[in-house]
Amino acid sequence: MKTILNICRFIVNNMQVLHNGVYADKIFAAVKIATVPAVFVTIFEGLGKWYIVNQSFMIFVFSAIAIDHILGTIVHAFVKKDFTFKKNIKGIVMKVGMCIAGYSLFVMIHEILKGVPFIPDYFKILIQFIVFIWPAGSAMGNMSILTGGKFPPIGWMRKLERFQENLDVNQFKNKEDESTTDNP
User: What is the pTM of this model?
Assistant: First the structure.
């Protein structure tokens, strides 16, 4: 509330200067009134463009978080029997927050590496896979608990665990891929 009052006071004071002040003060007040909103408009315009470019990926990530949250709630309420609303809310807020923060930081690294050939494309795919696989892998782990380890297959879960340990995407290759991509 105090912030809103300060913003209103800022606008009213500068508007008064625009109408009653001397010429130099009017110019300075006009610059202040124009500059402050311009900063926020620029930031939100950039975020809007970023969201449009990454919209489908963000939908996938938030869908994975929602699925993980629902399955995790079922696992903790009925299988592990340690469900609490506080931990449940804390868990989803942390997962959403960390996915947003992590993806934002990784995108910054991607932007820094844009001038290097090949790396930005590979890195963008790796970034998106890293961010997506955390909630998706957690959801798959919950599915495994609920199905008694029958689904998803144990081999897939092991590949996810190894990827989270070493970031080696080669373990997702098929055997045929390995024989055709090695020495021709």
Answer: 0.72
